[in-house]
Amino acid sequence: MVLVIGAPNSSNSMRLVEVSLTSGCPEAHLITGHADIPFKKLNGISTLGLTAGASAPESLMEEVIEELSTHFSLAIEEVVHTTESVEFKLPKQIR
To answer: Which fold has domain 2-69?
Structure first.
């Protein structure tokens, strides 16, 4: 299962749910924070993916991990697929 932290009106977050499902994950859910974690659906899940939309603050991710840790024994593995190196230069008028 994959949980995506984000807002329902975020196209980025909704796309992460869609990509999870089309990539072979049997279940993916959008949550806005730790209060939305579908604990009943987590029964029997051995691997849980957790990601967040681009605009979701890191503090939401930390809150969700903290809430999950009160219910489960966690082994957290950060997976990096791409390292971005794009730099945006300030316009000349601002520099």
So the answer is: Cobalt-precorrin-4 Transmethylase; domain 1 (3.40.1010)
| SS3 state at 29 | strand
Q: CA of 51: how far to CAs of 25, 36, 65, 79, in Å? A: 13, 14, 11, 10
SS3 label, residue 52: strand
Q: How many residues does the chain have?
A: 95
Question: Distance between CA atoms of 40 and 29, rounded to whole angstroms?
Answer: 13
Neighbours of 42 (CB within 10 A): 16
Per-residue pLDDT reduced to its tens digit, 35-81: 999 999 999 898 999 999 988 999 999 999 999 999 998 888 888 87
